[in-house]
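Sanity check. The docking grid for flavin-adenine dinucleotide depends on where the pocket ends up, so I'm generating a full predicted complex first rather than guessing from homology. Inputs follow.
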Amino acid sequence: MVDRVCQGSVFEIAFSTKLEKTRKQTRNKMTSQQTTQSTNSLSQSESILRVMPETAMFDVMGGAARLEKRVLDHGFVALVDCMPRLAPVGKTADFSIVQSARVSYGEGTKQVNEDRGLVRYLLRHRHTTPFEMVEFKFHIAMPMFVARQWIRHRTANVNEYSARYSIVPDRFYRPSLESVRAQSGTNRQGGDGLVDAGTAEEFLVMLDRAEGLYKDYLGLTEKGVARELARAALPVSVYTEWYWKCDLHNLFHFLSLRMDPHAQYEIRVFAEAMYELLKPIVPISCEAFEDYRLGAMHLTKLEIESIKSGSPLATTNKRELAEFETKCAQLGIAIPAAKTSG
Ligand SMILES: Cc1cc2nc3c(=O)[nH]c(=O)nc-3n(C[C@H](O)[C@H](O)[C@H](O)COP(=O)(O)OP(=O)(O)OC[C@H]3O[C@@H](n4cnc5c(N)ncnc54)[C@H](O)[C@@H]3O)c2cc1C
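Predicted complex below; grid placement will be based on this.
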């Protein structure tokens, strides 16, 4: 486990230093390509007008084929492509959002600080389509039970490893002995704290037994049982893989739900890894996302009225009251209480 965490950090450091170097190389290469006007079949076609960029462009992924982060014990998130892949030197892929938004307003000004203002305005006011102009394509390996939660996000394009066509690889998720969560007493859908060491050990033994079925799975497929049927015996801790492409607007929606503390830890770590990969590519949008979505709070009409009037929240719903208490604590204000007479 520790080894994997270390591998992850080393990769990130190597990446960040290498990124700048590769960006410079790509920049130089692009500029020389522009001047020599490379001839390919596109430029030879007389019916196609080939407009070269006004400024030098760089590869926002620093020339990398994939940018990868290790997640859990056998999982990974790899960014394999994005749109736009090229951005004007001195800008970021956020430029594409501004470019499409400006079609509404005409050219306007092109200053970077004004680009930032526009992106922040668009996100704050939920002008969503410009964010759909940016796309990210990931290759992900995750446990099957994580994939089941993930696939509920319908706006992405997905292509998954076929366990009908191929043998499922021998990879199963197992938490460490020290991280077996206990069932939460307050949230029926979540874990909270840890179980005692003995119970944790018992749970891992059960996982051993479930993983042991893999041997039978292999044996029976070799004897001729169809792969599409044999897989029915494998536990949901088995890993699957897919390519997952999503635009930035829907990706922010996914991330706001799956980076939230209410999301299950095992999907949250994937969402956090994805966010780390895309943040250097669209830093302005991510800053706005953090300011106006991730770190923001939604107040209901009843909550606003309670805060304004200083009267208790006009509901007897325990859950709603508890949510209001949490919000008041976050805001650093006292919970409006019933006024005592006399
Ligand atoms: C903490 C947590 C707990 C959850 N618990 C459960 C659970 O117990 N059981 C369960 O079944 N699910 C559960 N879910 C899944 C949840 O209900 C959503 O299905 C999931 O989060 C996807 O959200 P979405 O539909 O907004 O996202 P997406 O599918 O990515 O869609 C994004 C947005 O596009 C629009 N959209 C997409 N498709 C359509 C459509 N066909 N029609 C209209 N609008 C559309 C909607 O505005 C939607 O919000 C849980 C999710 C979370 C985060």
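Relevant for the grid: The chain is about 45% helix and 15% strand.
Also worth noting: The pocket of flavin-adenine dinucleotide is lined by residues 152-155, 250, 253, 257, 262-263 (CB under 6 Å).
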